[in-house]
Amino acid sequence: MNAKNVAQTTSKNGRTLTIGASLSYFVLSLVINAAGNVLTVVTSQKIHPAFLGSAYWTAAESGFNKAVFQGSNLMLGWVFFIVGVLIAILNVFLQGYFDWKKFVGNIAFMVPFSVLISFFAGMFSQVLPESHSVMTTIGYTVLNFIGVAMIAIAISIYQRTNLVLHPADDLMQILRFKYFKGSAAKAMWASYIPPTIIGIIAIIILPDFTNYGVGTVFAFLFQGGITGWGDKAIFPNLKHQGI
After folding, report:
1. Using one digit for the tens of pLDDT, what is the confidence trace for 30-81?
2. How many CB atoms lie within 10 A of CB 133?
3. Which of 85, 31, 77, 37 is nearest to 57 (CA)?
4. Transmembrane segments in this chain: where (predicted)?
C-alpha cells in the first residue's frame, strides 16, 4: 500500500478521517475511558464509609464482580468483557440487522479495554491511599467526578470516530440516532436500563451498596450531557463519522 492510499480520505458512509487519525483518536479515548472507569471505582473503595459510588455502568459491573467474585481486580476485567459481549448481542436486535463488522468491532473493543481496566485497577489501588481525613475525602470526591467526566469525554471521542465502539456506547449511539433524534442525554438514560438490571441482580446476591453513591447519581444525571458537550468542545473539528 503506497503513501497516497494510506493518507486517502473518503466520503463513503460519511467517513472523512484517515485510518491513522481514526486509530489515534480511538487509542486515546480507550485509555481515557478505562482510566476514568477505574478512577470512579477506586476512589469509592478508598473512602470509609463509602458514599461516592462509581459511574453507572461501572457501579453495576463492579457490584456484580463483588457479589460473585469477591471484588477481584483480575476478574473485574472479565466481568466487563462478558457484559460487553451480551450488550453487543442486544445491539444487533436494536439496530434491526446483523452487521458482522460492527459486532466483531464491539467484541474486539472489549479485549484491550478489559486489559486496561485490570491494569488501572491494580495501579490506582496501590497509588491511592485509604482516606481518613476530610481533605482526602473531598479530593477523592473531585477525582470521582473527574472520572465520570473522563468516561463521557472518551465516549464523545470514539463515538465520533466510530471506528469500533464499546458495546454499551454503541448501544447509546444506536438509541441516540435511531430513537432519540440525536439527543445524547436521553439516549444515555435509556441505555442505563441494562446496568440497572445487572445492579439489581448483584444486590439480590449480595446486599452491598458500596459501589453506589453520589458519584453514581452524578453520572446518571450528567454523563450524557457531558458527552454532548464534548462533541462541541473536545476536538470540535472531529465530526461523527458514518452517521
Report:
1. 999 999 989 988 888 888 666 888 778 888 988 898 888 876 766 777 888 8
2. 8
3. 37
4. 21-42, 75-94, 106-125, 137-158, 187-206
What pTM, to 2 d.p., does this model score?
A: 0.80
Cα 37 from Cα 124, distance rounded (Å): 11
Cell of 166: 464499546
CB atoms within 10 A of CB 132: 10
Contact (Cβ atoms closer than 8 angstroms) between residue 109 and residue 26: no
47: β partners: 131
Tell me the domain boundaries of the chain: 27-233
Using DSSP's 3-state secondary structure scheme, residue 115 falls into helix
Contact 162, 177 (CB under 8 A): no
pLDDT of residue 243: 59
**CA 186 distance to own-chain centroid:** 16
The two most distant CA atoms of the chain are separated, in Å, by 59
